[in-house]
């Protein structure tokens, strides 16, 4: 197969982790007989420095004409007080590509149980939670403004936006344990009351075979930390999903492990780790590339329909972790650490 992938290295650790991920994709291409053409896209802080714009139209076009998009991360303290921020590029990409569904699977393999900050009895049998985060609506994209003494951001959802993300969550649940927990703040927010009623209606009318329950977001955070194995699929709003997925990631060992797929109703999708640009360790060959590498596995499966290739990556990652290899962020007893490039190479070498 011919694959055309737009790669946005971005800022901070972005260039290092996308480099490692390309090494793995190249190995997949050679073992399975595919051809990959990469187009490098400049976005985020790098594009502010080069063009004065976090996402110039030409760079966006490169993404729109690719089959799929791989993103490292954007942002950093250098641009914190810039009039336009690197993060704007990410939000603009999600909106322009219509990527309303963000799948963030948090999978803890038993060999990483020691790396979880939770008590061993909570994680020793592994964890498998899928956060389905709404990605192009809510407070991130509502009306906003400020004056001399105040500022506001409006959380607004339409029934259409809620219906389509609910469908994604129920469809995902059908291929898993068949249980969805919808997370909201319906005891306070109007938008959450609508969220709850639409999610319930979609379940009753279209997915009676899937179990649905509702949870307030504050309780959900507590439940994830104290009884994570009760969860299968969590569906929630843009901001609640952002916050809860950092939590589900860290209980599975490290934020450096958790991939994501951002999907619309057509290609290209965008694939990125859920973590940020980690400015504190940028340029030191320390960052964990596994979240980005697993994002490539999601890309191969979801944008290209290459399930065996995706499984080959997942097997390679598991094999390397089971053999005891760790990057420094995975706090696992006395295991020695290796760097970003070495981790990428080991995983690529495991694909045969
Ligand atoms: P962060 O995720 O970048 O870092 C949080 C902590 O996790 C840091 O200590 C960092 O070193 C560590 N970490 C993150 N990824 C790691 C990896 N792969 N390997 C090892 N350690 C890792 O979050 P932050 O510090 O809040 O944000 C830094 C910048 O990144 C900000 O500008 C933020 O807006 C941006 N950001 C971008 C994205 C994205 O591009 N998708 C996502 C989140 C944050
Ligand atoms: C993420 C990030 C982004 C978000 C930021 C950088 C805009 O935190 O992808 O999780 O909040 O969506
Ligand atoms: Mn986030």
Automatic annotation (TrEMBL):
Keywords: Amino-acid biosynthesis, Branched-chain amino acid biosynthesis, Cytoplasm, Leucine biosynthesis, Magnesium, Manganese, Metal-binding, NAD, Oxidoreductase. Pathway: Amino-acid biosynthesis; L-leucine biosynthesis; L-leucine from 3-methyl-2-oxobutanoate: step 3/4. Substrate binds at residues 94, 104, 133, 218. Binds 1 Mg(2+) or Mn(2+) ion per subunit. Transmembrane segments: none annotated. Its cofactor is Mg(2+); Mn(2+). PROSITE patterns: IDH_IMDH (PS00470). Mg(2+) binds at residues 218, 242, 246. The record marks 140, 185 as: Important for catalysis. This is 3-isopropylmalate dehydrogenase. The gene is leuB.
